[in-house]
User: Fold this.
Amino acid sequence: MYDFTYTALASRVVFGLDSVKHVEREVELLGASRALVLCTREQTQQAEMVAGLLGRRCAGIHAGAVMHVPIASAREAVAVAARLGADCAVAIGGGSTVGLGKAIALESPLPIIAIPTTYAGSEMTPIYGITENGIKRTGRDSKVLPRTVIYDPRLSRGLPAAMSFVSGINAIAHAAEGLYAQDGNPVMSLMAEEGIRSLASGLRKLRQDPQDLDARGSCLYGAWLCGTVLGQVGMALHHKLCHTLGGSFNLPHAETHAIILPHALAYNAKAAPEAMRRVARALGSDDAAQGMFDLSQELGIAQALSEIGMPADGLDHACATALANPYWNPRPVEAAPLRALLQRAWSGERPAV
Ligand code: NAD
Assistant:
């Protein structure tokens, strides 16, 4: 037993097949009567379906969500909400759309309902990100945490299989790092292990049939648990490294996570044996890092940074940038082993034993 502090974050979760039908009731429970529905342009049809369910409680649809929440898009959404007299926002989509909802909540008293359609997990965190002059500023504020989250597996069925796989591994990364977090606690560890188990099994079934609603349900349930872990405890080497790679080389977010995770686990293996045991057990493997590598291989995910646009001559720069801002990690982050990690990840080799 060890000492810990646990602070529960207050959000209500409505989970189940076709649970989106409860959206009007959930708006009403927040004491709201005019909901602005947020989405990306690609998900306008789903937003129209939500608007239809909301009926007279819908103030309008704003299809202005884009990747990384540029400040202009955030300001525009706040202005649209004010113009339409909205008293809450319903964000249907992935992390980008939920991120736009959070940007509105940061600037106004509007409560947010999230209806996630990917496995990113942003809906469970008080973390926001807004991009200004090419730099993504992130912060933590409890007022951006969605008040209600509706998880409906049917709505994630349209997410292409390849995107589902990388999104799922991205979620697993939150839980894996949560298991060795400096401020971890036993409740988060329970959620993390169960989240990894549920996602790994759901993703394997999706490989057979991307339309399998039970598998979609397992993935979404896992994403909820993993997102909760991300919202409550600190992340380490894996997340910092992915942030550096994404920011410096404009690499795709979820794909970068999927490639780095097995290597980050191998790096930390000796320093966090109990976390590794739990990750391995959840994956049904003997070893956390090798098990993660095997899972992404099984899912046919890109395993080399070179495949997703990382230049070979950028590895030294990535290593130096990752070392420039020190942060806590179970094993000290040092130049030589970090450079070796990056090299293996770049060429798609198995993680170091
Ligand atoms: P995304 O929200 O950018 O979505 C990618 C594309 O997929 C969009 O065009 C979207 O409309 C489409 N899409 C989403 N669901 C779909 C579905 N079911 N069917 C068809 N198309 C669908 O991708 P994401 O991976 O969910 O989110 C990534 C972003 O979220 C990143 O910017 C990341 O930084 C952020 N994020 C934030 C947190 C946080 O806690 N703040 C946590 C995780 C991720």
